[in-house]
């Protein structure tokens, strides 16, 4: 079991089982929502429990996706495809060690010009 929360604790979540390897998204939407690139893991919704629903605000960033954040502290927590079976959860919101490591960079064509990706991990342009 892995757990986490937003900065103020109004939204808490837990994930049963091991965590998959996360990816880092460099698209312009993730950079604007998070202030940098965004690292997350895709979790099957059946394995994800969220508490504090009343504090979550959803922003519909496209016709296919909504992004969840805490209405109290503003922490960006979830990337949720409307037609999918999983929800992406922010790696930085987990409490304690996760037992996993970044595996992939995505949307690298959209990355900011102020940093380099040189960790040797695979990179997907889009």
TrEMBL record:
- Pfam families tied to this protein: GFA
| Protein origin, superkingdom | Bacteria
| Presence of keyword Metal-binding | yes
Q: Which InterPro entries match?
A: CENP-V/GFA (IPR006913), Mss4-like_sf (IPR011057)
Q: Where in the numbering of this chain does the CENP-V/GFA domain appear?
A: 2-116
Q: Which UniProt keywords apply?
A: Lyase, Metal-binding, Zinc
GO MF term set: carbon-sulfur lyase activity; metal ion binding
Give the matching Gene3D superfamilies.
glutathione-dependent formaldehyde- activating enzyme (gfa)
The reply to whether Phosphoprotein figures as a keyword in the UniProt entry is: no
As for family, the record states: Belongs to the Gfa family.
Q: What is this protein called?
A: GFA family protein
What phylogenetic lineage does the species belong to? Bacteria, Pseudomonadati, Pseudomonadota, Alphaproteobacteria, Rhodobacterales
């Amino acid at each position: 079991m892995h757990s986490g929360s937003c900065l103020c604790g109004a939204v808490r979540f837990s994930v049963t089982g091991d965590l998959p390897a996360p990816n880092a998204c460099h698209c312009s939407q993730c950079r604007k929502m998070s202030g940098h690139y965004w690292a997350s893991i895709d979790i099957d919704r059946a394995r994800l429990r969220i508490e504090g629903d009343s504090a979550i605000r959803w922003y519909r960033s496209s016709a296919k996706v909504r992004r969840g954040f805490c209405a109290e502290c503003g922490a960006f927590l979830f990337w949720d495809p409307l037609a999918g079976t999983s929800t992406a959860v922010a790696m930085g919101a987990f409490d304690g060690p996760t037992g996993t490591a970044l595996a992939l960079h995505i949307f690298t064509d959209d990355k900011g010009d102020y940093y380099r990706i040189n960790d040797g991990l695979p990179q997907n342009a889009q």
